[in-house]
Amino acid sequence: MVHEVRPDEPSSTSDEKITHTPHTSYRQTARRRPPCDCVRGRRPVWRAILRGAAVPLKHISPPRGALPEARVWLVEASSKASVNLTAERPIINPVLMDEIGRVPRASMRGRPRVAVALTTYSGRPHLAEQLQSIASQILPPDVVHVSDDRSKDGTWDLLQRSAGRQSFPVHLHRNSRNMGVVANMEKLLPRAAASGEIVVLCDQDDRWDPQKLAAVVRAFQKGSTTLWVGNAHLIDEKGKRYPSVSLWSGVHLVSSDLLGEDGLLHELGLRRLVLGQTVTGAAMAIRSDVVSAALPFPPNLHEAFLHDGWLAVFAALTGDIVMEPRHLTEYRQHERQFTAMSLVVGSREGHRPRERADRDTTIRAETARLDLVLNAVAATDSQSFRADRVEHLQSLRNFLVMRRRPTFASVFHHFAKGDYRRFANSARTFILDLLRAFRRPTSLRLHTGRVA
């Protein structure tokens, strides 16, 4: 996400809020279009189909970026004179959904509401593409919330013009001063969580595949799902894809890193989420009750987490994770990136080992992350956290604290509990900690108290 810190602007003393709601229904919009507007290659044809209009098939061509399955369905349906979709929301042909392996319309009537959360700051060069990709979803969002952080390049004007043309409600919010990307997101998330069961995070400079929101909704049809993690193509400033690299390869992630053969999160996966640099908000969706539990962000969050990593940990402690290997997002890489790191470079480096950091520094950093999470969990009123996963993090934290100042008694205590097999390289780490305990002063080696 692009975000540059700018000085506050005293021109406005209060936040601005503008709400745009569609003035006509999908079906009314489709009926008002004249037949001459339905010519091959124009977007109104495809949108008219999704909104309930009857259009001759010879005039139909899938929208730009549609997956091949949509074209296959059109060929197989060529025996019909026309396609008429007048179903209730979602406005999606059940035949089309079945053909491309999606959720049939019958099971989507009671689907959860989808709220898109988009933060912006001086992102005019690429914002129009992102807004268009949201509007082109085969399963449109129920509402879009946008929070602008006092942009200075015409982004706010572009948002106002675009919002009034959408077929779904768009709520525009503008901060009274520049707050920074994390604070801006923290202010936006409660609004999105209050208006939908699913919150889909959105960067201002990316592009979405037309089937992204349909895939998200399908994943959350399973009631225990709390987090959806998708893969993404990496694109440059001009929108050209980088060959043979992806979002997951950039962070060295595969499904087995988080999920076991049964599709459930395993202990190593939970620990990786705590370590960070695993999930990216641009390709992520989260259940709204998890968002509420993770807010407000701790004041020192920036010392250990970004907002997307923080939300992912809370989702992992609450429910199940669904990983989508298909590339349903185009994640833009450029020098104004907020994270200031190139996933393209990381992907091409492969799994080359990093420089080994000081052991105590590494343990101290991971312990600080665990303390931040466990303190936040203890302070929240939510009863939805899974006790076994919280206990796992507490045990991991105790083990790491012991390793910073090992004694013979504490080392053997954790070895007997199986912590060296569970959290470390078993016998090798056990022997190293014994040697470190032997080298410590006698008064510390004889300490027999347990580590809390």
Question: Can you put this structure into words, describing what you see?
Answer:
The chain has 452 residues and is an alpha/beta fold. The protein has 3 domains: 75 residues, no CATH class; 236 residues, Alpha-Beta Complex (Spore Coat Polysaccharide Biosynthesis Protein SpsA, Chain A); 87 residues, no CATH class. It is built from 19 helices and 12 strands. Strands 1, 4, 5, 6, 7, 8, 9, 10, 11 and 12 form a 10-stranded mixed beta sheet that branches. Helix 5 links the parallel strand 4 and strand 5. Helix 14 packs antiparallel against helix 15. The protein is elongated, with a radius of gyration of 25 Å. 40% of the residues are buried.
Could you name the key traits of this structure?
disordered N terminus, ten-stranded mixed β-sheet, Spore Coat Polysaccharide Biosynthesis Protein SpsA, Chain A, 452 residues, disordered C terminus, 3 domains, single chain, 15% strand
Using only C-alpha atoms, the radius of gyration works out to 25 Å
The CATH topology of the largest domain is Spore Coat Polysaccharide Biosynthesis Protein SpsA, Chain A
What is the assigned CATH homologous superfamily of the largest domain? Spore Coat Polysaccharide Biosynthesis Protein SpsA, Chain A
Tally of individual helices: 19
Low-confidence stretches: 1-12, 24-42, 52-107, 351-356, 443-452
Beta-strand segment tally: 12
CATH class of the largest domain: Alpha Beta
User: Which percent range fits the helix content?
Assistant: 40-55%
| Structural category | alpha/beta
- Taking the alpha carbons of the first and last residues, their distance comes to 40 Å
What does the main sheet amount to? Answer: 10 strands, mixed
